[in-house]
Amino acid sequence: MHILLFGASGHVGTGIAQHLGPDHSITGVVRRPPDADAPYQPLVVPAWVDEPDEVITALAASEAGPVDAVIAAVGGWYIDAPVLERGLAKFDTDYDAYLRGHFTACAITQQLSTKNDRRPVHLALNGVASVEALSGSGAISVFGAAQKMLIEVAAAETPTVDYRELRVMAPIGGDDRNDLSGGVETVGLAEVAASASAILTSPDRFDVSTEIHAGGTAAD
Description:
The chain is an alpha/beta fold. The protein has one domain (2-212): 3-Layer(aba) Sandwich (Rossmann fold). It has 7 helices and 7 strands; from the N terminus they run βαββαβαααβαβαβ. Strands 3-2-1-4-5-6-7 form a 7-stranded parallel sheet, sandwiched between helices. InterPro entries: NAD(P)-bd_dom_sf. This is NAD(P)-dependent oxidoreductase.
């Protein structure tokens, strides 16, 4: 399977590529070339959110072949001041980094479905902030909730793509920003990758939105 991975350079994107790379061909959309060897084939498109056609053009010029599936591991998270105190400028910055990126990734998948004469699966990753109001991560909660609806609307309106979302309902292991005091359980990158693989391989087995929790995968 040829997987196009948005957010490939991030902690989650890189981890997914490491786990899925042995069995799949992975092209990672990045804004700049990796500093070291990467577990994916870099597709450098500095302004891919604003210029989605550049992704289509770069793919056509590469030797990667038609895309079978897309994973959008776009965004991330932070702990900061309350959302209203951070102000509109930072809110707009978060919108660009999160929801706008997911919108563009969805639109690129839709374009690929018409150009490649095949039905790709698009899997967007989301987190617990999308369903819980997390203090200090307010914009992530707002845009995560909007992302959930974006995927549901895209699934309802687009007959040529299987749009799916995977919500990880616990901190992802290996991220030093997580506060795991008090014995908080995590979801490992191996579990995230296994869940992504299950959905990409058999999307009809899953609802548009699927949740995984600590100690489980979507295949359980």
